[in-house]
Write a sequence for this structure.
């Protein structure tokens, strides 16, 4: 196309714009989103919405993921680019499943894994793993999200493996494809479409959109969008055209043809409209009536009018329209936005440098609305088509009733001895009183007034005006926005809905008492640089939030941590015992007005009930911009379930719930395994202790039994020795001989020789011990010397005779003597210890208790009682 021809086209476009501007300039009012809001750059190339509701915006430099509050970016390098030699078209993005994006650009192909939020590094290996070893010539996606790969004259569906073999002699270039039922439609650069049966894999028919002579005009690029029983195709070359192919009739129809490029085509989900973007503005096609409408100028909420190239357009699942421009970023429109009609300073016939301050309103007997602005009075004229015009009125032409109403509005607001900025007694008998710091509510049955601040839901603390509408809702104008207060009929609690600049509220503050309700119920709010008009009866209903809240971030001790999967795809989180100071961040994807979002959340196991928060309240668990921040500190180990809901009204909670499973592992010393080991150890110690106690008790009983037997044997031996000595003495006296010992080798009929020898030995041993009874420390060595024996021999002798060691033999004789002295009850225990050779009374008591099972003092008392 030559420069002269381009100039002519531009001139015609500008002329066309100037003609239709008054007709369509106000159909849309857009909100601008650009680099100042976080967009990576303002050159938008493509728009897409993910299944979870997040938006994808691709720009010249980056891919932007948008959750309604924050932008995040996916960066690529040259290593992420796969060569796509046969693709000569525009920038395209295909979505496969819920986590895979395919980006197709001029001779380039890239893949994105949203689970990891990163590009696929080696696409060649990726395709080889999918059993596609040949170089890829092109990639397509059908309306069902199935990916088709074009190799050397072979078309293959990536998931199911269905393949169609194309003719090697076909010189046409495949530009796009789509499916319907069991048919595959291939769109070529010649304007032809070939229909294949995917079951038999045979071509059924071919149809051309235009004659062969027109192929040069539309041969370069193609974009196909599915509609019921038809396909709409956008084609570009030297011209731009929109065509429709009817799959039932197998016929083509040309809908639009222009001498400039048509960039993007979308069809709304209800299949009622199609949007086509171009070098200036966009076209709207009514699919039912086949009627075209051209929107060349885009108007923003701040009064800007843009005539720019629109590179792409998209309608989200909430009904919002996203427009991507060539160099001005994003524009967003939703029918329920800008609820308040704004009349700003541009509508006032005054000098640009003069301040505008709408102070009051009035209505005459005919229903005409007047407003006072400083010393000027204007009449608001409304035409049949809804166009509003301000007409300056002279003082003489103003009706008398209007002047009275203006004067009545200057009265001082005085209530209960206090002056207020505004007063209103509603139909319930409640009195609402505005102050410079909060809103007071006086209810007749309550002694003290309630006070509402910004943290309670008020738009701003400085209250300027208060008025009640015909639905018994209270409207409060402030220094920043408007609040509507709805009283719940069940619990009589107030609920706040705030209107900010997104809803058409004034950027400047509202003026004191500049509120008015007309006879038809329409409300008027005056302020700096204009006023607002709102009729509650005509309020458009904001659609419910169609998406469940998206998990955007997890913070540990205030720092963002990286999860194994990207946050929106994370359903389960496992943390250590010392990772228990957490903050969950969520976005409700409220693109219409993120600041007017209500959340409720609950951490099962910690929160007994749902926690309700409002994003515009400062100092709570929201960041003040529509994002939820729910923090928990020092969570004990365990399993939890975190649930989140979002709504645009606190009176209705019927949206989807986002659920995240949270596990905080216990430290190793508090795990089930550790407690099992602890139990086993305790059981082992208990059983071991019991066994030791039983063994010790048994040995003690056996030892005591042996000692008792030993004592009995000693007593028997002593008695035998005494009897033997007495008999010997009596015999010698009778025979006239005397002896002092009972150890002669006389023959005794009652005692064998061995017994007498043992008895003589024991008697001598007992005699030596008793002779040295008072010697402290009388040892086994001394006893063996006194008996003229070696120590080892003495040990073997006593063990064989008494099963007792020499030391225990000495100690038992001493204890027996101590027991005898205790029965006499004449000496103290210390004296007895000294006489029996014990080093101390405590040592005597210890040994005595081991032998007799009681202390010496107890033994003495028992013996005394028995006697």
């Amino acid at each position: 196309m030559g420069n002269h021809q381009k100039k002519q086209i531009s001139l015609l476009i500008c002329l066309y714009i100037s003609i239709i501007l008054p007709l369509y300039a106000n159909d849309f009012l857009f909100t601008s989103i650009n680099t100042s809001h976080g967009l990576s750059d303002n050159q938008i190339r493509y728009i897409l919405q993910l299944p979870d509701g997040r938006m994808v915006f691709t720009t010249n430099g980056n891919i932007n993921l948008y959750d309604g509050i924050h932008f995040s970016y996916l960066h690529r390098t040259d290593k992420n680019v796969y060569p796509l030699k046969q693709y000569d078209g525009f920038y395209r993005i295909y979505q496969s499943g819920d986590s895979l994006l395919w980006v197709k650009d001029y001779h380039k192909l890239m893949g994105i894994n949203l689970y990891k939020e990163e590009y696929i590094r080696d696409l060649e290996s990726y395709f080889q793993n999918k059993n596609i070893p040949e170089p890829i010539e092109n990639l397509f996606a059908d309306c069902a999200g199935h990916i088709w790969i074009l190799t050397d004259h072979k078309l293959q569906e990536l998931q199911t493996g269905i393949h169609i073999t194309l003719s090697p002699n076909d010189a046409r270039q495949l530009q796009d494809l789509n499916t319907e039922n069991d048919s595959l439609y291939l769109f070529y650069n010649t304007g032809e479409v070939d229909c294949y049966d995917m079951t038999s894999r045979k071509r059924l028919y071919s149809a051309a959109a235009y004659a062969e002579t027109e192929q040069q005009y539309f041969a370069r690029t193609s974009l196909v969008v599915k509609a019921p029983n038809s396909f709409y195709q956008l084609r570009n070359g030297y011209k731009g055209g929109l065509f429709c192919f009817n799959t039932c009739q197998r016929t083509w129809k040309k809908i639009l043809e222009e001498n400039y490029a048509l960039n993007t085509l979308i069809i709304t989900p209800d299949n009622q409209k199609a949007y086509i973007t171009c070098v200036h503005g966009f076209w709207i096609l009514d699919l039912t009536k086949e009627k075209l409408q051209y929107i060349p100028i885009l108007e923003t909420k701040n009064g800007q009018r843009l005539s720019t190239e629109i590179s792409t357009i998209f309608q989200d699942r909430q009904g919002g329209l996203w427009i991507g421009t060539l160099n001005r970023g994003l524009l967003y429109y939703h029918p329920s936005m800008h609820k308040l009609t704004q009349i700003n300073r541009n509508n006032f016939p005054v000098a640009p440098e003069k301040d505008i301050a709408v102070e009051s309103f009035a209505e005459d007997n005919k229903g005409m609305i007047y407003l006072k602005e400083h010393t000027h009075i204007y009449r608001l004229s409304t035409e049949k088509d809804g166009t509003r015009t301000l007409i300056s009125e002279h003082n003489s032409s103003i009706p008398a009733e209007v002047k009275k109403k203006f004067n009545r509005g200057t009265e001082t607001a005085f209530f209960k001895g206090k002056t207020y900025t505004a007063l209103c007694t509603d139909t319930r008998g409640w009195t609402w009183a505005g102050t410079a710091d909060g809103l007071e509510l006086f209810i007749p049955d309550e002694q003290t007034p309630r006070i509402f601040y910004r943290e309670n839901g008020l738009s701003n603390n400085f209250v300027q005006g208060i008025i009640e509408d015909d639905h018994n809702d209270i409207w409060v104008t402030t220094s920043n926005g408007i609040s509507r207060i709805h009283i719940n009929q069940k619990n009589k609690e107030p609920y706040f809905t705030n209107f900010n600049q997104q809803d058409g509220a004034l950027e400047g503050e509202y003026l004191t008492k500049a509120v008015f309700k007309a006879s038809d119920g329409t409300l008027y709010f005056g302020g700096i640089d204009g006023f607002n008009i709102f009729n509650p009866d005509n309020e458009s209903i904001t659609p419910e939030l169609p998406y469940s809240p998206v998990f955007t971030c997890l913070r540990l001790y205030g720092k963002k941590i990286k999860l194994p999967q990207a946050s929106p795809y994370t359903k389960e989180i496992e943390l250590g015992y010392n990772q228990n100071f957490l903050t969950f961040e969520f976005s409700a994807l409220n693109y219409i007005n993120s600041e007017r979002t209500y959340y409720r959340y609950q951490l099962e196991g910690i929160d007994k009930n749902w926690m309700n928060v409002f994003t515009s309240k400062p100092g709570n668990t929201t960041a003040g911009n529509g994002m939820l921040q729910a923090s928990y500190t020092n969570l004990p180990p365990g399993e939890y379930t975190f649930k989140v809901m979002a709504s645009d009204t606190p009176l209705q909670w019927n949206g989807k719930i986002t659920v995240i499973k949270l596990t905080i592992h216990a430290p190793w010393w508090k795990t089930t395994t550790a407690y099992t080991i602890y139990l086993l150890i305790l059981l082992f110690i208990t059983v071991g202790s019991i066994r030791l106690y039983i063994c010790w008790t048994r040995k003690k009983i056996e030892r005591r039994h042996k000692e008792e037997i030993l004592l009995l044997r000693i007593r028997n031996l002593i008695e035998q020795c005494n009897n033997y000595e007495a008999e010997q003495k009596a015999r010698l006296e009778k025979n006239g001989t005397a002896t002092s010992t009972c150890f002669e080798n006389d023959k005794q009929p009652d005692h064998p020789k061995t017994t007498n020898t043992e008895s003589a030995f024991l008697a001598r041993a007992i005699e030596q011990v008793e002779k040295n009874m008072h010697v402290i420390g009388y040892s086994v060595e001394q006893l063996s010397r006194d008996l003229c024996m070696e120590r080892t021999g003495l040990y073997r002798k006593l063990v064989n005779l008494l099963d007792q060691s020499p030391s225990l033999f000495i100690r038992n004789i001493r204890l027996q003597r101590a027991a005898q002295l205790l029965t006499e009850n004449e000496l103290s225990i210390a004296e007895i210890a000294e006489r029996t050779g014990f080093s101390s009374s405590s040592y005597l008591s210890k040994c005595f208790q081991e032998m007799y099972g009681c202390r010496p003092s107890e033994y003495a008392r028992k013996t005394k009682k028995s006697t």
User: Anything to note?
Assistant: Residues 550-670 form a domain with the Immunoglobulin-like fold (CATH 2.60.40.10). The CA atoms of residues 508 and 528 lie 5 Å apart. The mean pLDDT is 85. The chain is about 20% helix and 35% strand.
